[in-house]
């Protein structure tokens, strides 16, 4: 019932809407009561439906754990690791790890299709939709454990044009950037700010900390890959997470300054749920990520 409609549920499962309706009807016949309130919009579970749904979810988790344990007895000759992460972070941070893991364990399937905001990763781990997840340490919940991977700053991105030369420097592998609070920001005072759609509050925070008016551009773009092109065209400035920049070629047409004195530096971790069985494959992937990223083997 996560989709709240028969149509979206059918699309997610790759079946027809009548098939979903028939499956639900069979469940209701089996348990002798209505499970879904069809008169509600969006659809919702009845009180009994909540009980049935929770029980079926726990039964499904037990089946998944049993399959994982059986796969482990085959010593990583088979198995599956479901990874919850944003697609941009998967590309920027996990690709070297995924490649090394695939070479080491060619029969183990890596599932990187769960493209989530970092804020949604804990729920994916808690619900059993993912085996491991990449998120900020501050988002960790009590049922999660993790290996730290890397510290990450927020960077101010401005156009690489002569009038903004005093604001920052080109993106560099050494990660050396002037602090935005220590440079002359007046050149960007009249330049619109392109805000990430899930962080509207940053406009006020930046204005107070940087001492310049921050005028929001009438546009929102969630991912850095959508924001940097507008910066490169000289239309605005924005904020990006440090390790999500390199993969985008247009970073070469931008300049950057560190916001470490304005926005908190985040610790990126790879996490798992302590209260469900973690397969040998999932444990191996977490350890490999910690070794390659967390200890400097493959810095993003």
UniProtKB/TrEMBL annotation:
Pfam families tied to this protein: HTH_1, LysR_substrate
Gene3D superfamilies for the chain: 3.40.190.290, Winged helix-like DNA-binding domain superfamily/Winged helix DNA-binding domain
Domain of life: Bacteria
Alphabetized SUPFAM superfamilies for the sequence: Periplasmic binding protein-like II, Winged helix' DNA-binding domain
Keywords: DNA-binding, Transcription, Transcription regulation
Annotated HTH lysR-type domain residues: 1-46
GO molecular function: DNA binding; DNA-binding transcription factor activity
GO cellular component: protein-DNA complex
Family as reported in the entry's similarity comment: Belongs to the LysR transcriptional regulatory family.
Name assigned to this protein: HTH lysR-type domain-containing protein
Source species: Sutterella wadsworthensis 2_1_59BFAA
């Amino acid at each position: 019932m996560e989709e709240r409609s028969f149509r979206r549920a059918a699309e997610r499962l790759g079946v027809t809407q009548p098939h979903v309706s028939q499956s639900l009807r069979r469940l209701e016949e089996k348990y002798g009561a209505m499970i879904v309130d069809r008169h509600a919009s969006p659809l919702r579970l009845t009180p009994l439906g909540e009980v049935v749904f929770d029980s079926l979810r726990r039964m499904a988790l037990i089946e998944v754990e049993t399959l994982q344990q059986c796969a482990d007895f085959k010593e990583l000759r088979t198995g599956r690791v479901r990874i919850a992460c944003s697609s941009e972070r998967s590309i920027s941070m996990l690709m070297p790890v995924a490649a090394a893991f695939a070479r080491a364990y060619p029969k183990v399937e890596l599932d990187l299709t769960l493209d989530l905001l970092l804020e949604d990763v804990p729920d994916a781990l808690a619900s059993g939709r993912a085996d491991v997840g990449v998120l900020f340490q501050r988002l960790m919940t009590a049922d999660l454990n993790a290996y730290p991977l890397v510290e990450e700053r927020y960077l101010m991105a401005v156009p690489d044009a002569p009038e903004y030369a005093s604001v920052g420097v080109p993106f560099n592998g050494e990660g050396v950037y002037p602090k935005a609070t220590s440079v002359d920001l007046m050149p960007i005072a009249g330049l619109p700010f392109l805000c990430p759609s899930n962080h509207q509050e940053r406009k006020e925070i930046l204005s107070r900390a940087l001492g310049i008016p921050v005028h929001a551009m009438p546009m929102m773009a969630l991912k850095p890959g959508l924001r940097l092109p507008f910066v490169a065209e000289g239309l605005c400035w924005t904020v990006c997470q440090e390790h999500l920049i390199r993969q985008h070629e247009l970073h070469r047409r931008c300049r950057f300054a560190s916001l470490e004195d304005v926005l908190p530096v985040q610790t990126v971790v790879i996490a798992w749920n302590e209260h469900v069985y973690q397969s040998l494959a999932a444990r191996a992937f977490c350890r490999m990520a910690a070794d390659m990223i967390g200890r400097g083997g493959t810095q993003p």
